[in-house]
């Protein structure tokens, strides 16, 4: 059954990429003033910042850091390229630790022209190389399966089953999955695989937006909840039935919304969250 309608914003988190025109200082103040309780920080929003000061600013505004986006992009055609990816992910783990983020979302990567099986093996090896650092920093690694349209160059992990299989192979409490409705709503096995997440206790994050029809840009035309065809509330019900009690993270890549007044957009997010999420 679909979940109950949301009645407040106690579990609302917004990704900084959603309100892309705002720097982190503006986003933190605007989110807090609007009653938003969580923030997921994209790493570029931290460039040039003192992370301890930024963490204090977020805390002082009453926001919870939900996660850091993003790590991953492990596959490469050369050994040196794969090591560079591991080193960059170690830097991301340190950033997450300093900013107070309990997890990093992994967009796992792929290499055009390289067999997907090779990329998946490199992803497994890359995550394995991070486990000690992640455990020491008390930062979890959330594997986010991406829609198959991104299998060429953004992620060779494209279904929740693949992410669950990888978690079971790695068999480490530092690793789990992030469920994003934009990438997974189409999957006929989605409910069963979400239940599998719950049984394994590895469901770490839940991202929401909508799939517009027609979609004019496969990367940057996501919709507000209710603007498209995804049954978000039903999927949220599956997630909650699996034991997830964390934030509902609004992650919207949208040239259309980025070009709008961001204060008005924030109010639309709140309206759509209560009505359609």
Give a structural overview.
The chain has a single domain, classed as TIM Barrel. The chain is built from 11 helices and 10 strands. With 277 residues, the chain is an alpha/beta fold. The strands form 2 sheets. It has an 8-stranded parallel beta barrel with strand order 1-2-3-4-5-6-7-10, surrounded by 8 helices. The protein has helices at residues 24-33, 51-60, 79-99, 116-128, 131-137, 160-170, 181-184, 190-200, 232-241, 255-258, 262-276; strands spanning 12-15, 38-42, 64-72, 103-107, 140-143, 175-180, 203-208, 210-211, 222-223, 248-250.
How would you describe this structure in keywords?
single chain; 277 residues; alpha/beta; TIM Barrel; 8-stranded parallel barrel; two-stranded antiparallel ribbon
Outline of the structure:
The chain has 277 residues and is of the alpha/beta class. The chain has helices at 24-33, 51-60, 79-99, 116-128, 131-137, 160-170, 181-184, 190-200, 232-241, 255-258, 262-276, and strands spanning 12-15, 38-42, 64-72, 103-107, 140-143, 175-180, 203-208, 210-211, 222-223, 248-250.
Instruction: Please count the beta strands (DSSP E, at least 2 residues each).
Output: 10
Question: What's the Cα radius of gyration?
Answer: 18 Å
What characteristic shape results from the CA principal axes? globular
User: Any idea how many domains?
Assistant: 1
The whole-number mean of residue pLDDT values reads 97
* Strand neighbour order, sheet with most strands: 1-2-3-4-5-6-7-10
- The CATH H-level homologous superfamily: Divalent-metal-dependent TIM barrel enzymes
What would CATH call the architecture?
A: Alpha-Beta Barrel
Helix content range: 40-55%
Strand content: 15-25%
User: Which regions have little confidence, pLDDT < 50, spanning 5+ residues?
Assistant: none
CATH domain topology: TIM Barrel
The secondary-structure element order is EHEHEHEHHEHEHHEEEHEHH
Major sheet size, sense and barrel closure: 8 strands, parallel, barrel
Helix/strand class = alpha/beta
Q: Give the CATH class.
A: Alpha Beta
Gap between N and C termini: 14 Å
The number of helical runs is 11
